[in-house]
Model the fold of this input.
Amino acid sequence: MSFQRPRGTRDFLPEEMRLRRELEQRVCAIFRSFGYLEVATPTFEHLELITAKSGEEIVERLYSFQDKSGRWLALRPEFTAPVMRMYVNSLQSAPKPLRLYYFGPCFRYERPQSGRYREFWQAGVELIGSATPEAQAEVLALADTVLRELEVSYELHVGSVGVLRKLLACHGVGEEEQVRIMGMIDRGEMLRAEDMLKELGAGEVTATLRSLTELRGGAEVLEEAAELLRGCGDALKELHRLGEVLEALEWYGVRELRVNLGIARGLDYYTGMVFEAYVPSLGAEKQVCGGGSYSLAEVFGGKPVPTSGFAFGFDRLLLACSQKPAQERRVMVIPLGVEMLKEAVGIAGMLRSRGVSCELEVMRRRLGKALAGADARGVSHVVLVGEELRQGKVVLRDMHTGEQREVKVESLPEVLSSA
Ligand code: AMP
Done:
């Protein structure tokens, strides 16, 4: 009998895993450079945690199940709800603001295609406890820094669900309907949104909504938006807030962004500024990052707290990175004969204790075969342990050039570290 992986999942072979780990470390190092600290939450949560704010419709996109005690659980589809649950459980009294980051797998029952999986990884942050423009701008600037440092060719679009929601509210559209309409805008179903507005007796807002969501450009777009929103005080206030975030973004040096008031974001916990980053070369699944400002703690029984955050789709980020990290040094210690085995094991142990990773030839192959094997495995340096050991030396072979030289055992770690 042979088994295949479940649909939408992947195996990662050593070379791919090396690239993934390397990218993970680069991204997380940038998060830490802004003062963010790592947290982790369970892979599964109570189903209600996920449906509490995202609605029952999300269930069909979840891996949910009943455990043996009959509890309804779900594999996490993202980290924001779990991190905010953790915040309410354990961190509410911690000094504000809290800067948290996470990295881990998420699960969604989706139709798999290139760049879209049922098991995928997210790397993201939450800044909890500040609603200032500079706090919101920091989160956006952090996402921008990651993309810039990875030398990815990307577009950053910034909008405000606050503006859209307040415009709808201004025309008498209730909270629940707002959520449904925002969902339609997010999926690009503008005609459906317009039909629903007409049914609700708010047909007069459709033209404004359409013009607003089609606006694109620099900060000057806000003036056009203000014209469209005339008479809608609360929406204008939200627009002013977005303007403040855009101003702060200039201080952070984030200039290459586009105002896009058509960003509605699928999940309904966002309150104000929202943003998305796209890598056009990825095609249909080009969105590598999404985030914004939201309020979620109160849904999980906590006190309301302003929060901003984002999540990178890590797998898409990896696809977008054209720059592959350089091949790493890989060392193999080969005993020249069984009688040198004990010494070779000792030298390998000494190298590891001095910070040089290495593997040992354990197949008892003759030298020629052992070298061919090392080459086939991508080994970059071979340490041959033979009779030179009597003079306290080994032979170091560079597998790329074929060059060999004798090296004193005690200086081997240093020589290999600089290789
Ligand atoms: P979201 O939580 O939906 O805002 O997703 C955040 C990011 O995760 C998106 O911008 C995508 O890059 C990534 N993402 C979402 N769903 C998937 C998926 N099924 N496969 C791969 N990446 C995904």
